[in-house]
Amino acid sequence: MKKEISQVVIKRMPRYYRYLGELIDQGTERISSGELSKIMKVTASQIRQDLNNFGGFGQQGYGYNVQYLYDEIGKILGLDKTHNMIIVGGGNLGLALATNSRFDRQGFVVTGIFDINPNLKGKQVNNNSIMMMSELDEFIQHNHVDIAALTVPKDNVQEIVDHLQELGIKAFWNFAHLDLEVAEDVVVQNVHLSDSLMRLSLNMIQRKERYQDDE
Question: In CATH terms, is domain 7-76 a member of 1.10.10.10?
Fold first, then answer.
């Protein structure tokens, strides 16, 4: 049985990938864990522990080959594969996701956009025409779908998720403000935008109080 990686480590992996990509753009060929720690604001020991979960990738006194580590973390994140994604909800947020070119470059390909608003039917968004929810079943039957991005109101999102699970969807990117109930073999990544703003607000308050105490 494979070792289960903690969610804390998993959360840091995209950051490693992003910073390494920036180092490649800057022409950096090799970096030590100490140098990487200064950039990422994570201790060198933590970096080594994180990467050792996947095999290490570095040599003592020699550091990391930036391009190699970038490529290997990309494989860990599944970015060496193509993931077909549908978007359920053709509103502003859904359209913003559908037009984000970065997703394509990272292997997340939007293959279908669905909505219930008949006024959106056939609207062209990049290489996709918005389809109606009534067309969803047939689309999934004839097209492989890895991920469903949910940009619909929370009132009916659970019903949609239940139906998508019946159709075989095993991964959800959830922008609805509702914690979904899913089967054990289904994965969900929640994106609660208001939660992020509230965390920002709390951090602002804490910073203000900390600096006031120092005066």
Answer: yes
Which parts of 26-106 fold into alpha helices (H)? Answer: 33-40, 44-52, 66-76, 92-98, 101-105
How many whole angstroms separate alpha carbon 116 and alpha carbon 77?
Answer: 33
Residue ranges per structural domain of the chain: 7-76, 83-194
Q: Distances from the Cα of 97 to the Cαs of 2, 92, 119, 143, in angstroms?
A: 33, 9, 20, 20
Q: What is the mean pLDDT of residues 185-206?
A: 90
pLDDT score at 195: 85
Handedness of CA 154, 155, 161, 164 (dihedral sign): negative
Stretch 24-50: mean pLDDT? 91
Specify whether domain 83-194 bears CATH 3.30.70.1130: no
Q: What is the pLDDT of residues 137-169, one digit of tens each?
A: 999 999 999 999 999 999 999 999 999 999 999
pTM score, two decimals? 0.82
* Tokens 């929640």, located at residue: 190
CA distance 87 to 110: 7
Strand partners, 108: 83
